Amino acid sequence: MSDNTSILFNSRTAMFDNVRKNFLEAESLPPACYKDKDFFNAEVDNIFLKSWLFIGRAEKLPTPLAYFVVDILNESVLVTRNEEGKIQAFQNFCRHRGARLLDGHGVAKQIRCPYHNWGYSHNGDLVGAPDMKRTEHFSKAENGLLKIRLESWAGFLFINFDTDAVPLLDYLGDLPQTLEKYDLANMHCIKEIDHSVACNWKLYTEVDMEDYHAPTVHPLSIGQQVFPRQPSNGEYETTFYECPKTVSVMSTDHGPVFPHIEGLSGKAATGTYFTMIYPGFFLVTTLDSCWWINKIPVDETHTAVGVGYCFPKTTVARDDFEAISSRYIERWDMVIDEDNKICERHQRGINSRWSLPGRLSFHEEVVNVMNNWVLDRVLPQESATDVHS
Question: What is the pTM of this model?
Fold first, then answer.
């Protein structure tokens, strides 16, 4: 373990006591938490390999025998829809000698290894293994693809590498009820974009869940917003911005917008929820649409950022959809570009060997909550009492 991380783990009181305080008395995480390799590896082991991770919408598999591949955490995941319509996830390597099976997305009658032509069904069963008849005690039944847990909520697909993890709906707690009126299951993702951002994954989750930066970083695309933290019961945080208009277009845009989601009522009809499903799936649900920004770490200072833009299926079917939605996409793309740049600039600043933790404003309550969520899972178990005491 590096000297830097030894300090992080062994000098717990000095390093983390100020993070553990009430957010108006607290400081941000020590800069080493955003750049130290061993701390990052502990996050991968204790957070990302044990949490439910968003990998895409169900409409990415529009027909039976469709598939797509997700490369995540130095693993490759093959997601398929079988002939009966069931969606499943498997490790994307051949059980013969481990060659990578598929790339990208498409439709395939059978999953075939490009090395020795072993073939698998979309249920993961080994159905073809040429010239293996002389191999003693070989069984096709014992050499199917290795399954990965996959569960869904409202059309959003999640995987979990931990076989002992709680079910997805238990993980989400009361979030499905909170967002029920947005009818997310009947949304359709019209565009996805992948970004590579040179920052630690936590910096990007933090910028998503505080409104302090909005007037400075997003003067035209967002402007001034205040969205306080909301009660939650699950592995997520959510804030709410009360506004009778959609936040999917620029505040200065006075052009036509789409109608509100059919059946929208209650609190959902009065504004927008900004939700972070731990560890890094940010979902914005507003009056007429939704979008997500998904963060998966590549290494301690680089993050894969996936973005998706969704509308109700009835909205997508409108004759004027393309003309109106182009303004939505322009605004969303602008926000993402601004966040990408400020997060990279933030990372360059804290890379300084003299960088120190900073105090938080009242706008940054959720930043403090998320910082402590990470510490609760990354610090050695025996340190939890020490840190909170």
Answer: 0.93
